[in-house]
Amino acid sequence: MFKKKSLFWQLYFSVLGAIASIALLFIVIWAYLNQQSDTDDFYRDTQYAAAPILAAWNKQPVSSKTNLSQQDSLKKIIRQQINDYSFRIEIIGSSELETRLEHFKFLNTIGQSRIYQHSEDDTLASVQRLNNSQFWLVIADLDVDPEAEELTPILRAQFEQEIREDELSAFTVNIVALSLCAIIAIVLFLQINGIKKHLSKLVVASEQWAKGNLSARVDDALPIPLDNLANSYNSMAKELERSIAEQKVMAHAISHELRTPLSKIQLAMSLLERKFNFLTEEELHHDLLKYVDELENLVSKTLTLAKLNHSVVNKKLESFDINQLVADRINEQKRLHPTKSIQLTSTKPVQFEGDQFLLQMAIDNLLKNAFKYANKKINASANIDGNDIKITIEDDGKGISPESQEIILMPFSRVDESRGRDSGGFGLGLAIVDSIVRQHSGQIDFSNSSSGGLSVSITLPLI
């Protein structure tokens, strides 16, 4: 079964995702710029370290530049620069250079220097050709390993200090980053949760309206633009309340005004019967009595429906065995329709809390319809379905079309000819059943039965 997603969490994670994407893009750009900055800083430092070496090299006669073993003063300068700048500095030939750069990738050329980066540890190396020779000055970052044997005690101490500082800096940066992320997440949660609370006020009000309490209003002290939405909701509820109040007054007025002349007609016909006894044998007299009874029934059902729909009837909640109620109503209808059979399938007794009088009215209406339109047989069942009680009544009549099933609950609705006015009724019975079922938080469903007739099911929650 498809599970609906929470708009609150969708919005929350969408905003967090957007912020995370922006942060990731910023980190990538920052890393690129930082790499460029590191390369420039490395080049600048290597130039400082190389300056005394290059100056000493250029002072040497050309003849001595082919034999590095005799360059003691140059070696001394190189050792001094290594201690001062913590670089690996050496002068090597072209053949050895290729081997040394085997695991390096070329980055850039700055001035007279070529900048390379090691493919594994990301250390940088600067390569510069020495004047009038086949030798190259290579200045590279040292692999920061305090345990390396070639490090002097001074360099080892420096590297150990740098490692501690880098670890402390990394730890501080991570803590600050995590703290900022946590703060952003909490602030977003509070802000979006505030929106959720504001929207929940609209939901609560709409639920009250669905229950018939149209006097409920939404607190319009909400941030823009939710305040406009709240005002629109309140205006709509006010108009609905006024419209329904007018309909309620009209329904009661019409029912009352119709009953007054009906009572007068019934009284007049009763007086005529006493004065002229022979009228009781006239067919027209019987038709008139029938029409009066139909009008009386119509007025009564209209008034009942109006009271149910406008919450005039207050439910009298009581606990009773709903399966026994179904069985009792079936036995009552059996006596009124001895020519048709009905079979009941039900589970053990089921206690239900609701208005027994209203539910009896609903079940009676369903049974009357079934007996009216059935050819010979009716099947009824009352069984527990999960946390609900499901009551189904089906007949073997002609049934109704799927299109008619969609409008059958509307008051005064007309369906197939086989279930039209010619067979009696005004199209109010099922509308009354639907109203009663909805007052008990249930639902009513229609389908065609296996025997070809109509199957009506009402589902009522037990909890």
From TrEMBL:
InterPro entries: 2C_sensor_his_kinase, HAMP_dom, HATPase_C_sf, HATPase_dom, His_kinase_dom, HisK_dim/P_dom, HisK_dim/P_sf, Sig_transdc_His_kin-like_C. CDD domains: HAMP, HisKA. Residues 193-245 form the HAMP domain. It comes from the Bacteria. It is found in: Cell membrane. Residues 253-463 form the Histidine kinase domain. It is a multi-pass membrane protein. The chain crosses the membrane at residues 12-33, 168-190. It is an enzyme of class 2 (transferase). GO terms for molecular function: ATP binding; phosphorelay sensor kinase activity. Its EC number is 2.7.13.3. One of its GO terms (cellular component) is plasma membrane. It catalyses: ATP + protein L-histidine = ADP + protein N-phospho-L-histidine. Keywords: ATP-binding, Cell membrane, Kinase, Membrane, Nucleotide-binding, Phosphoprotein, Transferase, Transmembrane, Transmembrane helix. This is histidine kinase.
